[in-house]
Amino acid sequence: MRSLRSLVPLLFTASSLATNSSYSPVSHPQVVTRVVYQFPKPTWLENIATLRNGTLITGILGSSAEVHLVDPTTNTASLLHSFSGFNSVLGITELDTDIWAVITANYSPTDGPTLGSGVVWKIDLQNSDVKVDKIIELKDAGMANGLTTLNPQTLLFADSFHGNIGRVTLSPNGSATYTVALTGTNLDANPNGTMPLGANGLKYAAPFLYWTNTWESRFVRAPIDAQTGERVGEDEVLDEEQGVYDDLVVARDGKTAYVVRPYAKTLVEIALPVKKGEKAGAPRFVVGGTGSTVLPGATAATFGRGSDRGVLYVSTQGGNTGDNGEGVTLEGGKIVAVYLNGVGAC
């Protein structure tokens, strides 16, 4: 199995070092970026989401399973919770109002992921006292990576090693069950290959589940049932063979997806089909690029939820000196604000 050194750049997941938040223009004349907050080197930020109050929530991969809050108005960060017994946070999603779900797991610097080590947790932020409870251990899943909310009783995650979409169903009595919701060639993994990960980043934006497939260099969506998460129509390949895609976010109007490309150090936008028979638009460069230090090792993206609804916040893992994630880490992971002329998101 591949070592973590080569696996981690495909996953794309502490706080005492603030940075200068000055603005810097990029190639697109209407896009401006700024560093909101940078963590110490080496810190790998694997995921990012936005709380109802506008605060950003992000998780660390490969060193400590920590969840941090970052305030984009004050450019400060604080530790929300550290999960003992784990070294990575692989998914974050809002399950219900101010109630969040996260996936933790373990990774070895030499042997890659510990299969079946994933655990889903609930973080309750409804009161000043943060409450953290275990939802379920995913012992039968290979590599739980990425997390999205289908409804307040159902979570979906990508099993990147087994090449499927897992489902966690919560019951009123507090118990939970794990089943496989989706399989198929567009989710397949290649565990014995040089690019082992199948389904990777995923987001539910009704009526579609969107996901990236790392091994297949593919961005896909499928219409799914809002209660079960199972397919109710055919897959649509929105883009393929454009390099490695990781995580994504879908605009609130459902017309555009923004996808991060870690190796290419870029954020791209893809116009989505809105009518039957339409095809997705070609990927359009937004920011970053070869040699750029704006988004080194981009891992995930989220939109603001307040007056910053037109701002896309991108997390990074710090980048590497070599190609395909090899070599020395360039810098600490950071959160970058990308200003997109008022486009909102779901």
TrEMBL record:
Keywords: Signal. Residues 1-18 form the signal peptide. It comes from the Eukaryota. Gene3D superfamilies: TolB, C-terminal domain. This is SMP-30/Gluconolactonase/LRE-like region domain-containing protein. It comes from Massarina eburnea CBS 473.64.
